[in-house]
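Dear Dr. H.,

I hope your travels went smoothly. While you were away I took the liberty of generating a structure for the chain from your last submission, since the lab meeting agenda had it listed for discussion. I wanted you to have the full record in hand beforehand rather than looking at slides cold. The sequence, exactly as received, is reproduced here:
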Amino acid sequence: MALVCLSDFEAYAKKHLPKAVWEFFAAGADESCTRDENLKAFKRIYFRPRVLRDMSTMDTRTTILGSEISFPVGIAPTGLHSLAWPDGERSTARAAEATNTCYIASTYSTCSVEEIVAAAPAGFRWFQLYIHRKRTLSEQLVRRVEALGFQALVLTADLPYTGKRRDDIRNNFQFLSSIKLKNFEGAFQDEDCSEYGMPPGSIDPSVNWNDISWLQSITCLPLIIKGILTKEDAELAMRHGVQGIIVSNHGGRQLDGVPASIDALVEITAAVQNKVEVYLDGGIRTGSDVLKALALGAKCVFIGRPAIWGLAYKGEEGLRKVLEILKDEFRLSMALAGKHFFPFAVEFYPLLL
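The corresponding predicted structure, in token form, is as follows:
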């Protein structure tokens, strides 16, 4: 059967991945209310389309931090890609390179940053960072990615501790026996790496706004904060000199009961007022979802679980197909809504109810 939309890829991945692996990628925190709300919230947003606008020429290109991408969808930082496809993040990097979009590589990758770059040397990449209790490990990693040509640093800010993901606990984290986090190869020899491939309590829970200055002192890379859901934190991010914000609730995997990312977006964009770029992840499943996020002020969106579903189908080929479907759906949604070029966050916002 042909796979024609992202839900088809989801069904394929659920059928073919081992149960514990599927449940790891699918899991939300606690009752998964926020995970599910990420999807439901998009369905409450309706377009007021305009007609007779000459849609004969369409242009889906945009820029993020000054770099052009083919359309405003990138790949969010999800970990452990080799659980979905043997070649892991190498395939992810190649798919992003082939479609000319941004891939945010995760600290929790099963391929090293060097292997990711070697797989797709011309790719456009950012790097997602968790700050380790041993700051030297994080500092060394930041310096590695900067030397390798990664173009921005994405600090995940919503994980002082890992959310309670019930299925992983029920499955006794059995999927972890086959993985290694290649970015830390040799760093934890003879240690218990039972917390998603790292020793328990590895992520530093003391990280705070003062650490932004520390990061800025060790790298020249632009800094993006991921995990902001309130105007207060958006204002603090700007005050600390960051270049971007990713509105995100971690796919509903951290604090259950926070707003859907798309519902938080308007508050953030109103606070930021175009002073820094604002992106979004969480709940993107169709091209019209992409259009809704952009119309509400996002510069670009990033997909997490759908990228995993694509990998589970046919590795690089499957992920490229997922991205191509989203691009085609986005272009069609633009045409049917009566909008054929960028930017349109301010123009298009009144067309939403």
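Two observations you may find useful: Residues 27 and 334 are 32 Å apart (CA to CA). Residues 345-353 have pLDDT under 50 and may be disordered.

With kind regards,
E. W.
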